[in-house]
Every structure is written in C-alpha cells, then in structure tokens.
Specification:
The complex is a heterodimer of chains A (748) and B (566). Chain A has 748 residues and is mostly helical. Chain A is 64% helix and 1% strand. Chain B is mostly helical and 566 residues long. Among the domains of chain B are: 200 residues, Tetratricopeptide repeat domain (Serine Threonine Protein Phosphatase 5, Tetratricopeptide repeat), CATH 1.25.40; 88 residues. The longest helix of chain B is centred in the first third of the chain and has 25 residues. The chains are: A mainly alpha (748), B mainly alpha (566). Chains A and B meet through helix 37, helix 38, helix 40 and helix 42 of A and helix 25, helix 27 and helix 29 of B. Chain A: One of its GO terms (biological process) is anaphase-promoting complex-dependent catabolic process. Chain A: It holds the Pfam family ANAPC3. Chain A: Keywords: Cell cycle, Cell division, Mitosis, Repeat, TPR repeat, Ubl conjugation pathway.
C-alpha cells in the first residue's frame, strides 16, 4: 500500500475518529487528512478478510441487492400480478423459495416500506422510492437503508442529494447497541422491534450479504457511509462524477487503486460472489475521471487495471478498444492474457472470443476468423449484433464495403442503434456512391431521433464530406467532437476534410491532435506522414511514418507510404522492398485488387527507377488491366516504353494518358520529347521482316527495273547502298510486306 | 454447298426475340426472308416446331454439311435442360420482357433478380448493362461543355457486371461477357469469350459483330479463323471482317457471290458486295449494286452512307442531291441521313452546312467513325485545324484501325506546322494503310519540312511502289531530292525515268523538260566513266531533241546548246 500511494500514507485516517463532530468531518475536506479510500484499506487490513464483506474490494454489489437487504416473501407480492414483477425479482424468488420460514414471517411496517421502495425502483418510480426509502431510513437509521435511499436519489438524477447522504456523518448508532451488531451477529440481541424486523433474514448465510460496517467500533459516533462501505464510496464517486466534481470524485476514489499491492486484491483473486468486482468498477470510474482530466496515460492504466481485475467489466474493455488506447500488438497481448478463468469461470472461452473479435483487424486474421466462426457455430450467435459487428469490421478492413454494408444494415435492423457499427455503416455509405442518398436519409433520421448522440451529427458531417462541402462537414464534425471528445471517427474525418480541401497544414495539426488523443491507433500518424509527403517535408514525414510503423507494422497502406518515402529519398531498392511487402500484406487482407492499384503504380515506378523496366512494365500493365483509365499508370508505361526505345509504343501510350488527363503538362512534354526523337529515328521503325523487304526490293528491281525507271546499273548502286547502310536503316518497311507485295501486284 | 434450314433460323429469331436482342432478331429475320420461298416453306413444316424457344435439337445433325466442326453436344443439352427447369419463371420473364420493351431497364433487371433460368439471367444482365450505359451517358451529358468531360461516357458499373458473368457457359451471357471485356480493354479475353459464344450458338449475329471489333488486323483474323465453327454465319462474318478491315481479297468477292446464291434476296449481302467493291476501288460496281439495293428497298438506311461516299468520289452531284432529299423526308434524326446530307453539302462546297450535319450525325451516334472523319475533313477545308484535330481524334478513338483518322490528324498538325506530330500520325496511318500513295507523299513532304531529305526520298520511293507507275510528280520529287543531296547518279536515274514516263504518256514537255536536261548533262559529264551506257546516252539525246522540237518550251535554248555539245 505504501508503495502504490506514498503521499497518502501519512494522512490515513484512524478507523474510527473519536469524538468528531459532523462539522469537523466536513471541514476535513480542506484540512489535513484525506477523504480518500485509504481508511477503507486500513479497516480491511485491520479486520479479517472474511468477516468484513463490506470492505472486500473483490465483491460485487450483488449481496447488497435490494431484495436481500429487505426480506420480502415473494408470494405475497404475487397479488400484484406478474406484470409488475421485475425480472430480478423472479430471480430472487427462486432463491428464496426454499425458505419455508417465510410463510410464518410477520411483516413489519419497515419491511413493507422497503418492499415499496424496491418495487418503486424496479418500476422507475424513483421519487416514490426516495420518499419511502427516506421514511424507512428515518425509522431504522440502517446504513443499508441509507445506501438504498442514496441509490434512489441517484436514479432520480438527484446526485447532490445522494452524495450528501453518503458523505455526511451518519449516526447509525442511536440505540445502545451498535447497529452493526445485529448485522454481524445475527438476531437475538435486544433491540427495538423495528430493528428486529430488519435483521430478519433468519436464514442468512454465513457471509452476510448486507452492507456491513467495516469497523467494530459501534459507538454513537457518527461516521460517514463512504468510510464504512465500498459500495457507498463507489456510489458517492459516481454522484460526484455526474455533477462534474472531478477533483472531488478523484479524491473519493483515490488517485490510484488503494488495494493494489495490499495482497487483498488483484487479477488472480476471483471474486467471491460471481458478480463484477467493485474494485474493477472503481478502477473504471477512475479511468473515466482521468479521461475527463485529460490524463490519458493514467486513464489507460486505470482501464487496464479494471479489466485485469475483472474481465467481465466490458465497459473498461470498450473504452480501451473504441477509444483506440492500445496499439495493435499491445491490445492483442492484453486481451489474450487476461485472467478469464478466474473471473468468468466456465464462460472464460466465450468472453475471450467476444473480446477477440472486437480487436483491430490488421493482424491475427485467422484467430479472429476462428473466433467468429466458433461464436456462430458453438454459441449460435449468428444474429447477435456484436458478433455481426465483428464480421462487418473485418469486411470493412478488407475494403469490402458492399458486404460490410449488408451486415451493418442487418445489425441496425436488429437493434436500431448499435454504437460500434454505426461509424462503419456510415463510412460504407460514404464509399459507395449509390448509397449516398440513403446516407442523407439516415442522417436526418438520426438527428430527428437522437439529437443528443454524437453519432447523429457525425453522420451529417459525413454527408457533407461526401458532397465535398468541406466547411459544412467540418462544422458538424467539430460539433460531434464537442459532444463526445472521445469519438475517434469524427476527429479523423475533421482532419480529412482539411486534407481533401488541400489545406495540408491545418490537416497536419488536426491529425496530430487525433494522434495525441488516440494513442493506440497508427492511422492519424500515418495521415500526418502522408500530408508531410504531400508538402515535401520529408524528415517530418519519416518521423511520423516511423512512429506509426512502431505501432502497427502490418498495415499495407502504411508500408506503402513508407515505400513512397524511400522512393522520394532515392532509395529505390528499399522502396521496392517496402512496396512489395505492402502488396504482400494487401494480399493477406484479401481485399479486391482495385484498392491497391496505387501501390502497384508506386512499385512499378520504383522498378522503373531501378532500371528493371520489364518488371515496371508488368506492374503498370497489371494496373491497367484493373483500371484501364489510370492516367498515372498510362503515363509511366509510356515512359517505360520510351526508356526501352520503343518510341512508337511510347507515343501511343502518352496519347492514351493524355486522353484521360488532357492537361497534364509533364505528359505533354514527354510526348514532345518522344516525337522529337521520332524524327531522328529511321522513318520506318516497324522493322519486322527487314530482310524479306530487301529481297523483294531487289527482286523487283531486277525484274522490272524499267517500270520504275531504274536502270540495272542503278539497281546495283541501290543494292550497294542497302548493304552499306544496313537493312534496318535502309528501306521502307512495314509489318506486312508480303501482303503488300500481293496487293501491289494485283493493282498492276 | 451451303444448306440452311429455315426452321433453325426461325428458332434463332425466337431465341433472340426472347432475349430482346432486337437488332439481331431483325437481321436474322431479314436473312430468313431472303431464302427462296420454297425452301422456307418446305423446311418449316418438315422439322421441329418453328417457334420453339430453343434451337432445334437436331441442329447438330443437319446444320452444315460441308464442315466437320459442329457445336458440341453438351451445349445443346444445356439449352434443353434450361427450358424444362425454368418453366415457372416464364411469367416473370414475360413481365420483364415488356418492361424491357418499355425501356424500363432497371425495373426489368429488378424483376428478374431472383430468376435462375438462362434466358432470365441474360435479360437481367443485359438490362442492367443498358441501364448502366444510360446512366453513364446521362452523367456524361451533364458534363457537356465542361472541361472535365471525358471524350466518351464512362460506365463505372462495367466491372461489377463483368464479375457477374464470371464462369458462365450460356452462349448469350458469354456474348455479353465478351462485350464487357472488350469495353474493359481486355481484347484477348473478349475474343476468347466471343469465339466460345459463337461456337456454342452461331446464330447470334451480335456476338459476331462484337467479335469483328476485336480483330485489329488481318493477321489476327487469320489466326482466329480456324477456331470458329464452320457455319453459314462464319461465311457471312468473313465478308464482314474483310469489309471492316477495309482489305477484302479476291476470295471474299467469290464468297459474297456464293452467299448471295444461298440467300438470293438478302439486301444485307448485296450491300456487303457493294462494300467489298468499294474497298477494292471498284466504284462503278459498288454504285450499281447499291442502286439495286435501293430499288429493292427504298427505305433501307444501312450502308447508305457508304453509297453517298461512292457518289461523292464519283462526283455524281445530282444523284446525291436526290438521295439526300429522299432520305431527309424519311428520318431527319438518323445519323446516316445526317451523314448523307453532310456529304451532299460537302460536295457543293458548303462547308458550314456540311459541318452542321456531320456534327449532328456524331451527336446522334458518337461512335460514328466516318462521320467524325468527314467532320475533320470539313474543318480542315475551313482551315480550322484545332476543330479538325478534335474530330479526327474522336475518329481514332472510335476505331484505331482506320487510317483516315490518323492521316487527317497528320494533315491538321501539318497545317499547324507541328511536323513532329504529323509525322507520328502519318507513321500510324502508313502502318494501317501501307498502299495509300497520298500518305506516303504527305509523309515525304513532312520529312522534307523537317529537313530530312534522305527519309523523304524513302517515303517517296515507297509511294512510287504503291502508285500507278505514271506518277511523274513523284519521280521529279525524288530526283530533285537526290540533286539536293548531290547524289547525281540517283538523281539522273529518276530524271531519266521521268522523261521516259513523260514521253510515253505524252505529257506536256514543260513537265519533264528540266529532267531531260539534267539527264543529258549527267550523261555528258559521266559518259566517259562507263556508268552511263549507250542506250541511256541515246535516250538523253532523244529527250533533248523533243524539247527542241516543241517550240514553246522555255528550256529549248538550253537543250539546243546541250545537243550541240554532244
């Protein structure tokens, strides 16, 4: 304990501050001692683990569940009709059923009111619950009732009230005997009738489920609820967070997990009751606080701790993954090495697979595919939105937008709102032009239905991005980021709008912000690198790309950009290596070839620079097979022909390039150069069959020299000329000399 | 002897109608009608029901007696199975066909989306293709007059459609696949698909036509020839290819006549005959045949454009006028008619009006090669080289095999004094039309302008090979170039040839008198060296004597002096 939170060690509060007035306690916020959770730890350490469940961080709230803290024989409630029954109630009814004694149990006033309170909560009548809970508390002064009253306040959004209840000095000991006693020791002590009723669960299991006071000091000294129970402290922190009182909340929760290194808590300690560890929940809440206070690193630690402490804490996982907090390898390692068995027991495998399919899709394709398949086959989760999302995400990573869209549409048909799939859905609509009208509809619908959701405005922004209205798009993206600062797609899209508009400097700034906010993803850094390349800031580009590569070494796009940089630096061998690797990675992704046309063109150019003209030609031709109107590939192919002295072909290809892009000055210049040199080349460059042509000429001159006005003497001269100049440079040729011969004869 | 079963033709017509290959059906039914009447009636009742929706089963046995190659049996089985299996789709198909007729292509494809039968699948794919084309065209027109309008509409959905025909074995779908592959610049694959298609189902004329577009020269065609089924369609196709490649040979002429024997009333074959004659420069015959065609069917618009070309070349102004008036009444919005009228105005040297009509023709049909070329010619006449270049470029884009576009480009650039460009285009033109004297001449001029006399000489000599031997101009050109290069022996040889030509053809003395003088001077100065033999000496002398004899010549005094020197 000392190691993890050294500054707090000296200020730890004695378990029971004697003779302290409530006002003193309150003042203590600003005074020397801490309000942090250290006191709880010390109490825990002081008492044995087993007899202080309220202080055990490895427990959940299950045991403080309303239904157990107030014994309510369910059969009496059946008169209310099954309609009003909460599912939880059913659950507990089953547990209670074996209790034969219930029938005989007489209900007191307090019990009835507790029943009202809990039923009101399940029916979302929070004010009612608060009203009756307040009365119960007044009757009993029981900490449990106080907790439930606070819970009611919380649910009614009355956070300040709840907080006040939890943090005010609570005089639970109004009678002679401390209130804790009956709870700890069971019935049989002399007490008021009402209180006797309270401790009613005669069949109470040995580890009492009640919130129990962590101290054995049961004097009439008022003590704050947060100091005697973890659940109360957690609830108080929740209230403070809701009120935006972040420093206070952090104070309540502690800067770091107070139980760390105490040996009482940790990943390997299974929780006692099968619920979710309070410890983990607190870590998660602490993480959220850290995020609010822009301490991202710390937040990540907290979330990781929360997940380590209890794998079932999906929210911690979700924040980590959706918020792009971990790089790909880190993510994979963490998720694969969590202690599933301890926390999820029989469902360990299932939980692991569910988490696995959410991870980044740049690596471990087979494992993820296997996980998806098993989830579908063994658990028959074919129509579960989260499993479907795994499929959709994988398809999106392969640029198979149409398929991805089909799946996201299915998801949305199932659940209407699925936050994780929504960005994918919208992105697919952006990519497929024929869906753009649908995107318009969707954005309108979302804004109508859920104007409070960041996602809705993000969809609007994407629509404007699709329409190439950059300023409008930006307006909505910044609105989105204001509403939800951790919504990565909006940040990236915001930066994209700058990049697409050609405002590269602004784009770099925006991407850098993204990179800072979302440290687990390499994409913003890669985009920064791309913008720098565009601006010819090669050093900066290298820095950014290398940093991105450290995060993710399996994104073909990134490797392509690095290849481009190597090319820019003139290191063509390295460029070729990198680009080949990019193609290899792309082939692993198995996306359609059209997506990697750019990389192929780059690779071709690198080959060309290395003088591997044949390879370059092959590459460009492959590109043109896929996309016959690729102006760049056409121009480069022309250059390859030009370089390999196939002037004719070069000129032709330049023409084709110009037909795609008529104003490309580079190609025009190249064409002029080619045409200039075409003048100097022999007039009939298509030199196939040169010898044959010569033979024909000779024959013609011998046989019919007269017709052409050529004397035998001159024919001899001609012949001499031919042999001197050589066949290729000499006489007019075309490819089909024989055909020509035929036709000349026939026209005569 | 070629033997055609009318029943087969009828079945084929039905097949194409079912698939809404309208032009093909029209063409086939014309072909059917051109069979002799007795043959049509006799075979129609003898064999399988005429309006069976697939080719008759016995097509294999009695299709073509003369060749060994017949469609494989597996293909026939496929077609038969198709009918039984997909009977229940027929009602949907019927609706879809009517949608198609109403040009509601999207709706047609949508209606057929679930259908699996070969007919339905073809019609669905075809309708999607047409709708994609229409969209592309609309998108293209939206860009009209803007800078980023590409020269031709770009169909973005081609690849998706192509992917949907992967691995098909239906001959009609194969045809579509070939078409799409061709559009995607994959000529070899397209050729293969189309050859498979016509082998499996030879009656699909559209597939043949597409196949024709795939051959870029005679060599390719010769290589592909033996892969094709020996079918009457192949014969008709052979003519078509020869015409299309603008190089019909004598066997083609014989073949046309054979075919006309089989289909005595076929106007298509008749006009093919005219086209063959046209490309062989036998304009009189071509005109006669076209006259016959028009007499038989005064409303036939196909190939009328070539007819007007012939009339233009033969300068038959009145006939052309009459034709223009007749067809204007018929349909002003047919590209052929616009072309015809354009030709009419062109012949009357009303270039603005001609341009207007040619423009209209290409607007109606942007793939109208000859109209683009003639539009270029008109612009060239009007000395608007930039517009001419644009038009020729489009012509070349439409068909790279046609040398006229390339030649026009060369001329236009020459007007702009951009000789290096025109040289390249001339080179392309000569590669395509190696027997065209004017291109070689133009190329020679071009080399001269670029100050390359040697290359120019080569071009002129090449021109000489193709030209009629009486082309005095070429001889003089070559001779003068040799003079310029101071290669006197060569110069003298060509001068001598010119003199000889001139005297033989009885040209005016003025045209060759300078040559005679040069030859004589050369003979005199080199006579002793043995390079010049007796005959030549005598010839030189004769030449000089003729000059002297013809009194008016300005060179007479010089000749007299030389004669005395001999």
């Amino acid at each position: 304990m000392a190691a993890s939170t050294p500054p707090r060690a000296g200020f730890s509060m004695p378990p029971v501050p004697r003779l302290q007035s409530p006002s003193h306690t309150r003042n203590s916020i600003s005074s020397s001692f801490s309000l942090g959770p250290q006191s709880l730890v010390q109490s825990l350490m002081a008492s044995g683990t087993h007899d202080s469940p309220a202080l055990d961080p490895n427990r959940s709230l299950l045991h403080a569940s309303p239904l157990q803290s107030s014994p309510r024989p369910q059969r009496r409630r059946q008169g209310l009709g099954s309609v009003s029954r909460h599912p939880l109630a059913n659950d507990h009814q089953m547990r209670m059923e074996p209790d034969e004694e219930e029938e005989d149990y007489e209900w007191g006033r307090v019990d009835r009111m507790r029943l009202w309170r809990h039923d009101a909560i399940t029916q979302h009548l929070y004010t009612t619950a608060a009203f009756w809970g307040d009365k119960v508390l007044s009757f009993t002064n029981d900490p449990n009732d106080a907790f439930w009253l606070a819970q009611s306040y919380f649910l009614a959004n009355q956070y300040a009230r709840a907080e006040q209840l939890l943090t005010r000095p609570f005089a639970y000991a109004q009678t002679d005997s401390p209130i804790v006693e009956p709870m700890l020791n069971g019935k049989g002590k002399g007490r008021a009738d009402a209180l006797a009723a309270l401790e009613a669960p005669v069949d109470k299991p040995p580890g009492s489920p009640f919130i129990q006071l962590g101290t054995d000091a049961g004097d009439d000294n008022p003590q704050r609820l947060v100091d005697i129970s973890i659940s109360c402290r957690y609830l108080a922190a929740q209230c403070q967070v809701r009120q935006g009182k972040w420093p206070e909340a952090l104070e309540t929760l502690g800067e770091a997990n107070p139980w760390r290194n105490t040996g009482k808590s940790g990943a390997n300690i299974p929780n006692m009751d099968g619920g979710i560890k309070l410890d983990s929940s607190m870590c998660h809440l602490r993480g959220l606080l850290m995020l609010k206070m822009n301490r991202t690193d710390k937040a990540k630690e907290c979330f990781l701790e929360a997940l380590l402490l209890d794998v079932k804490n999906y929210e911690a996982f979700d924040v980590l993954v959706t918020g792009e907090m971990m790089s790909i390898d880190e993510e994979w390692e963490v998720i694969q090495s969590l202690s599933y068995a301890e926390h999820a027991r029989d469902e360990a495998e299932f939980v692991k697979m569910m988490y696995t399919i959410r991870l980044k899709k740049y690596k471990h394709f087979d494992e993820m595919a296997l996980a998806r398949r098993r989830l579908v086959q063994e658990y028959s989760l074919i129509d579960n939105p989260d499993v479907l999302h795994g499929f959709a995400d994988a398809l999106y990573a392969q640029f198979r937008w149409a398929d991805c869209f089909a799946i996201t549409s299915r998801i949305l048909a199932l659940v209407n709102v699925h936050p994780a799939s929504m960005p994918l859905h919208v992105a697919c609509m952006h990519h497929m032009s024929y869906l753009q009208s649908k995107l318009f509809m969707l954005a309108h619908e979302l804004v109508d239905k859920e104007p409070e959701a960041a996602m809705s405005w993000y969809a609007v922004g994407v629509w404007y991005l699709t329409r190439r209205k950059w300023a409008d798009a930006r307006k909505f993206f910044s609105k989105t980021s204001l509403m939800d600062p951790r919504f990565a797609p909006a940040w990236i899209a915001f930066a994209h709008s700058f990049a697409l508009e050609g405002e590269h400097d602004h784009a770099i700034t925006a991407y850098s912000t993204c990179a800072r906010l979302f440290q687990g993803t390499h994409l913003p850094l890669m985009f920064v690198g791309m913008e720098h390349i565009r601006l010819s800031h090669f050093d900066a580009a290298d820095d950014a790309l290398n940093a991105a590569y450290k995060m993710c070494d399996s994104d073909p796009l990134l490797v392509n950009e690095m290849g481009v940089m190597a090319y820019n630096r003139g290191n063509y061998e390295k460029a070729v290596k990198l680009l080949e690797r990019a193609m290899e990675l792309a082939s692993v992704v198995q996306s359609s070839r059209t997506q990697w046309v750019g990389t192929q063109v780059n690779l071709g150019s690198a080959y060309r620079k290395m003088g591997r003209l044949q390879d370059a030609k092959r590459m460009y031709q492959q590109v043109l097979e896929i996309d016959p109107r690729n102006g760049g590939a056409l121009a480069y192919l022309g250059m390859v022909y030009h370089m390999s002295d196939e002037l004719d072909q070069a000129i032709l290809t330049y023409h084709e390039a110009l037909s795609v892009d008529p104003t490309n000055q580079h190609v025009l210049d190249l064409l002029n150069v080619a045409l200039e040199s075409n003048i100097d080349s022999p007039p009939f460059a298509r030199a196939a069959g040169a010898e044959m042509w010569n033979a024909i000429v000779k024959e013609r001159h011998d046989a019919r020299g007269r017709v052409y006005g050529v004397t035998p003497a001159e024919a001899a001269l001609l012949q001499a000329e031919i042999s001197r100049v050589g066949p290729n440079a000499g006489l007019p040729m075309t490819g089909d000399d024989s055909a020509m011969d035929l036709s000349v004869d026939s026209t005569r | 002897m070629i033997n055609v079963q009318a029943a087969q033709l009828r079945a084929a017509i039905q097949d194409c109608t079912d698939r809404r290959l309208g032009e093909t059906a029209k063409w086939l039914s014309e072909l059917l009608l051109s069979l002799p009447a007795d043959q049509r009636h006799a075979s129609g009742s003898a064999t399988a029901p005429a309006f069976h929706s697939t080719p008759a089963r016995n097509r294999v046995s009695d299709s073509f007696q003369l060749g060994g190659l017949v469609p494989s049996a597996s293909d026939v089985a496929l077609m038969d199975a198709a009918v039984d299996e997909f009977k229940d789709e027929e009602d949907v198909l019927l609706v879809a066909q009517h949608y198609f007729d109403a040009r509601e292509f999207e709706r047609c494809a949508y209606k057929l989306r679930e259908c699996k039968g070969p007919k339905s699948r073809f019609l669905a794919t075809y309708a999607s293709y047409l709708s994609a084309e229409r969209q592309a065209l609309n998108a293209w027109h939206a860009l009209e007059g803007k800078r980023d309008q590409p020269p031709t509409p770009i169909n973005q959905q081609k690849h998706a459609l192509l992917a949907s025909t992967n691995g098909t074995s239906d001959p009609f779908l194969l045809f579509l696949r070939g078409l799409l592959l061709y559009r995607a610049n994959q000529r070899a694959e397209a050729t293969a698909a189309l050859i498979t298609s016509v082998t499996a189902y030879p009656w699909n004329w559209a597939a043949w036509l597409q196949l024709c577009a795939c051959f870029s020269d005679r060599k390719e065609w010769d290589e592909a020839q033996h892969l094709l089924p020996d079918h009457v369609m192949k014969r008709i196709f052979t003519i078509r290819v020869a015409v299309e490649l603008q190089a019909p040979i004598d066997t083609d002429v014989a073949l046309v006549d054979d075919l006309i024997g089989v289909f005595p009333d076929s106007l298509y074959l008749l006009s093919q005959k005219a086209l063959v004659a046209y490309h062989q420069r036998d304009y009189e015959l071509a005109e006669r045949v076209f006259d016959k065609v028009l007499a038989l069917d005064p409303y036939r618009m196909e190939n009328v454009d070539v007819y007007t070309n012939i009339l233009y070349v033969m300068d038959k102004r009145i006939k052309l006028s009459k034709l223009a008036h007749e067809f204007m009444k018929l349909d002003q919005n047919s590209p052929e008619v616009c072309y015809l009228v354009g030709n009419h105005y062109s012949l009357r040297a009303e270039h603005e009006k001609a341009v207007k009509y040619f423009r209209r023709a290409v607007q109606l049909d942007p793939s109208y090669l000859s109209a683009w070329t003639l539009l270029g010619h008109e612009y060239l006449e009007m000395k608007n080289s930039h517009a001419a270049i644009e038009a020729y470029r489009r012509a070349v884009d439409v068909n790279r095999k046609d040398f006229r576009g390339w030649y026009g480009l060369g001329q236009a650039y020459e007007l702009l004094n951009m000789h290096q460009y025109s040289l390249h285009y001339y080179q392309r033109a000569t590669a395509l039309g190696p027997y065209e004297v004017r291109i070689w001449k133009a190329m020679g001029v071009c080399y001269q302008d670029l100050n390359k006399p040697r290359e120019a000489i080569m071009c002129y000599r090449r021109a000489l090979l193709c030209a009629t031997p009486s082309d005095l101009y070429l001889h003089l050109k070559i001779a003068s170039l040799y003079e310029f290069l101071e290669e006197k022996a060569h110069a003298a040889a060509y001068h001598r040839a010119a003199v000889e030509l001139g005297t033989r053809e009885g040209r005016p003395v003025g045209e060759w008198s300078k040559s005679a003088l040069y030859a004589a001077r050369f003979a005199m100065s080199f006579g002793a060296g043995g390079v010049v033999d007796e005959a030549e000496m005598r010839m030189a002398k004769e030449g000089l004597e003729r000059i002297v004899a013809s009194s008016g010549s300005e060179d007479a005094p010089a000749a007299r002096d030389l004669l005395q020197a001999f």
